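User: structure tokens for this one?
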Amino acid sequence: MSLGLLYRERRAKDELAQRILRAASAYQRMYGRRPEVCYVHPSCQEGLALLPQMEVRTDEQIQPDQFYLGMFTSR
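Assistant:
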């Protein structure tokens, strides 16, 4: 990933997809384009298929209340 944003989401009551979309909006405001990938903690795997416009992957280094968003450097 060449450019990323570590986004912390404290509204744990909302659904995962809704929280990721808020993070994606923050990324777009900062960098002027939508992120292609979002890394989440493995405990947050429910509802990952609900975001067809962005690839969601798991990473144990990401905390449960964080999302790491960015663009692919190469596929």
